[in-house]
Write a structure and sequence with these properties.
about 10% helix; 53 strands; mainly beta; single chain; Immunoglobulin-like; 5 helices; 5-stranded antiparallel sheet; 6 domains
């Protein structure tokens, strides 16, 4: 697309009697342009250019001004324009006249010229008013702003018509194919036209009737599309008597308004940020202004974004992404706002996002409140999952049978409410379990209704669930054995724990809960199908389901398998819950000892000291706990002198021992280092001898050579 600029220069007087030169440049495209004001052929140095203005048709306008000093009287002012649509620079001039000139002569000459012109115009007017002297005139097609998918009307007018005018509109596409549609097509013939031509409607109207003349206005109405009409040519052909006039309109630009694509994509990052991705589709031309900002109260802050525009031939798509700190969404009044503006739009549009628009709303599990029995103690557990951000309020209420009022429960001698501990799941959302505990003996015989209410910024209405508990309620049939498994674990060696329940119902579920060293809680159900479903390497499996000796009941055995590590499994606790019908029992297992066996992957290293001694060293790595025994050549146990802790919680040590050079003079000389750790049943060692073959022997020989020189 390109448009040639039009140029006007004038001298303007201000109220303070000073003057300035104004150069107005209009209707050019693209935007880059050079505009200069000249005084008597010399470029002025202090002219000022205004900001560019975008016209309705997509072209640009700009003004340049120059304040004329009071002591300067230029005879001529010029505006010089350079633009890529011009083969040579375009210059417009004005001549200036001043009061000290021969004004009377000039005024007389001007009056004479004006008078002559008026006489000539009056003569022409009366000449044209005579019948037969008025010429058939066709105006240019009025070119509107074209918008894809919106009805457009092209208008062409003819003046001084004496008879009927035949109108034909011709549409020629980019491939040269022509389609003609006229105002003379009758209803029957219209049905016979190709479907494409039926999309075009032609009207003709006679206006301004005079004695023998009238005017004609014809309109072509259709819905343009970029794929079919961009680059095409529309011709209006009017035939009057034997004269045919044609006016041509070239479709150089069609705007297509961007379409906002639903749904918006929200993604959680590992750092707790919310990544928002918005797509705007099928717009034209390519240029699009997009900005993001956050609004917290009265303050606003810009948010950096990444915008990618894709070219689909006739239209463009844009994907805009930004990353917002998750903390912003803890307040439901905070907003993230996207703003965009396109040439096809009258004004900017915005889209607001708050925590209510995020897809991570709290969910209650299938059985919202579970009853866990531990002797006379009852634990009511309510688990909430899949929420973000990590700000959750849980309240417990009680309502005694026969009472209409719910009373909020707080921790007391009668009730204990655990703190909410939330943990982050693999999908970066949060899950938490709240526990209300009490003694069955404190309940009334008629029962109490307990309600757990969950509040979160993403919820319009809090979630809640209720359960009725009685004093004599108990899982009487279920018997649960102690969790079986090794009491001593070794880092990197797989561990399997077993839990057995007798007299279980058919719908019994087994859930393993692992609370790791950092407080992170994992919940594992039996026989999850995919690796993604198995959180952090834990696998629960139903080992056996046998018929019990009580009719209709079952005995079940469940296992939990995992590979312990020092970083995750120090001082952990593992619970096994057997549940059915919203009730159940729990057993807890705790590991007594956790070890990591020492690793020695390198041979003994030898180096020569400045004193002529041979320094022997060995690296022992990745053991736990820290205490380790080391001795050289079966001598006394020495203290490690370079112990350090690794990032995974294990320890590494470098043990060093010095020997005289003469120690290696014997043919049977050897260096031996031994170590013992709590994770080992017996001492282990590594040895280097003068008789060793290969690199070790060569190393010793080279060192001895240096010692005895």
């Amino acid at each position: 697309m390109a448009a040639i600029p039009s140029v006007v220069i004038e001298k303007i007087k201000k109220q303070d009697k000073t003057s300035f030169a104004l150069c107005s440049v209009n209707g050019f495209y693209p935007r880059d342009i050079t505009v200069e004001i000249l005084k008597d052929g010399t470029v002025t140095e202090d002219s000022v250019m205004t900001e560019f203005h975008t016209n309705a048709d997509g072209t640009y306008s700009v003004n340049v001004t120059w304040n004329i000093p009071s002591d300067v009287t230029p005879k001529m002012l010029s505006c010089l324009v350079n633009h890529e649509t011009l083969t040579t620079k375009l210059q417009k001039d004005i001549q200036l006249l001043y009061a000290n000139s021969n004004v009377s002569i000039i005024v007389g000459v001007l009056c004479g010229i004006v008078g002559a012109l008026l006489i000539a115009l009056i003569a022409i007017y009366y000449f044209k008013r005579k019948p037969g002297n008025q010429k058939f005139v066709v105006s240019d097609i009025e070119d509107p702003v074209w918008t894809d998918g919106e009805k457009t009307t092209l208008t062409c007018r003819a003046s001084n018509c004496t008879k009927d005018v035949q109108v034909t509109w011709v549409i020629q596409d980019r491939d040269g194919n022509k389609y003609e549609v006229s105002d003379t097509v009758s209803g029957d013939k219209e049905e016979e036209q190709p479907l494409m031509l039926r999309e075009y409607q032609v009207t003709k109207e006679k206006l301004n009737h005079r004695k023998e003349h009238h005017d004609v206005t014809t309109k072509l109405t259709f819905i343009p599309s970029i794929s079919r009409h961009l680059g095409c040519t529309v011709t209006c052909r009017l035939t009057h008597q034997k004269n045919t006039e044609e006016k041509i309109c070239e479709v150089k630009s069609i705007n297509a308004k961007p379409k906002f694509l639903e749904p918006v994509q929200f993604t959680l990052s590992g750092q707790g940020d919310v990544e928002i991705s918005v797509k705007l589709q099928k717009f034209y031309p390519r240029e699009m202004e997009v900005s993001w900002f956050s609004k917290m109260g009265q303050s606003e802050e810009n948010i950096p974004s990444d915008n990618v525009i894709s070219d689909f031939g006739n239209t463009f798509d844009l994907e805009s992404k930004c990353s917002v700190p998750g903390e912003l969404f803890k307040d439901p009044s905070n907003k993230v706002i996207m703003k965009w503006k396109h040439q096809s739009m009258e004004k900017s549009q915005i889209q607001e996002f708050s925590v209510r628009d995020l897809p991570w709303h709290p969910k209650l599990q299938t059985i919202p409140i579970e009853s866990i029995f531990q002797d006379d103690q009852v634990l009511l557990q309510c688990r909430v999952s899949d929420y973000f951000p990590n700000i959750l309020v849980v309240k417990w209420f009680e309502r005694k049978t026969g009472s209409p009022d719910m009373v909020q429960i707080s921790s007391s001698d009668k009730y204990k409410i655990s703190e909410i501990y939330s943990y982050q799941m693999e999908n970066q959302t949060f899950s938490s379990t709240t526990v209300l505990s009490y003694s069955r003996l404190d309940l009334s015989e008629n029962g109490v209704e307990f309600t757990c209410r969950v509040e979160h910024p993403s919820l319009d209405i809090p979630l809640q669930s209720s359960i009725v508990q009685y004093r004599d309620a108990e899982v009487s049939a279920l018997l649960m054995n102690t969790i079986q498994g090794p009491q001593t674990w070794y880092s990197g060696d797989k561990v399997t724990l077993y839990c057995t329940g007798s007299y279980c119902m058919e719908d019994t579920r087994v859930i393993w809960m692992v609370k790791e060293a950092d407080g992170f809680i994992c919940e594992i159900t039996e026989d999850m199908r995919t690796d993604r479903d198995q959180p952090y390497g834990y696998v629960a499996h139903r080992e056996r389901t046998d018929v019990s000796d009580v009719k209709g009941l079952l005995d079940v055995t469940s296992s939990l398998t995992f590979t312990p590590s020092i970083a995750k499994h120090q001082n952990i606790s593992i619970d096994c819950k057997i549940l059915y019908g919203g009730k159940g029992k729990v057993k807890t297992f705790q590991c007594k000892s956790l070890y990591a066996k020492p690793i020695v992957s390198s041979p003994i290293k030898l180096s020569l000291t400045d004193s002529g001694e041979v320094l022997c060293s060995l690296d022992i790595e990745c053991f736990y706990p820290r205490d380790i025994q080391i001795k050289w050549n079966d001598g006394e146990i020495s203290e490690p002198n370079r112990t350090s802790q690794n990032s995974d919680g294990t320890f590494s040590v470098r043990s060093e021992h010095k020997l005289t050079g003469s120690f290696f003079s014997g043919s049977d000389s050897a260096v031996k280092v031994s170590w013992k750790h709590d994770s080992m049943k017996d001492w282990e060692s590594r040895q280097m001898s003068v008789r060793d073959k290969g690199k070790k022997l060569h190393q010793i020989q080279e060192l001895l050579k240096d010692v005895f020189l």
